[in-house]
Amino acid sequence: MNYLGLNSDKTKSTVEQLNVLLADYHLYYQKLRNFHWNVIGKNFFDLHEKFEELYEDAKIKVDEIAERILTLRYQPTSNLSDYLKMSNLEESKSELSDYEMIEILLEDHGAILKQMRQVVKTADDAGDEGTIDLIGAYIRELEKTSWMLDAWKMKTKEVHTPATK
């Protein structure tokens, strides 16, 4: 750990949280593939394309999280059976409506965001700005994606809450 100047005990805690996030992203990735393959109905074209965009992004994040763990001089968890035990997410069935798929993804986003915030907190305690920077960008991106998916499921007559009255 000397080449990064970080405390190895504190870094180990960060890595433990990163491995949970890695597990979350693996389940999220597979869920997006599931939804991409199985979406049907009038929103097929839009959602089929959106799910592909999201799983391609998740695939990149899986690699970046694993590489961050390696940068911190630890081995990333890499077995599916371990991911299933560690993850904050659960697998989804394939027979869902488009609306149910979006609802599930928004629930997963909440769990992933919570885990990301835990990673940032743990990394902050370790003085690990590199991890904070990486995950901070992920938080911003996932919050924006969540807003867009939430807007998709809103009824046309619904409006956002005004900031001032």
Descriptive overview:
The N and C termini lie far apart (53 Å). The mean pLDDT is 95. The longest helix is centred in the first third of the chain and has 31 residues, at 8-38. It is built from five helices and no strands. It has helices at 8-38, 44-71, 80-86, 98-125, 129-153. The radius of gyration is 17 Å and the shape is globular. Helix 1 (8-38) runs antiparallel to helix 4. It has 165 residues and is mainly alpha-helical.
The N- and C-terminal alpha carbons lie at a distance of 53 Å
Strand content: under 5%
Q: Average pLDDT value?
A: 95
Q: Tell me the quaternary state.
A: single chain
Short description:
This protein has 165 residues and is an all-alpha fold. Helix content is 72%, strand content 0%.
What would the keywords be for this entry?
165 residues; mainly alpha
How are the elements arranged and paired?
Elements: H1 8-38, H2 44-71, H3 80-86, H4 98-125, H5 129-153
Helix pairs in contact: 1-2, 1-3, 1-4, 4-5
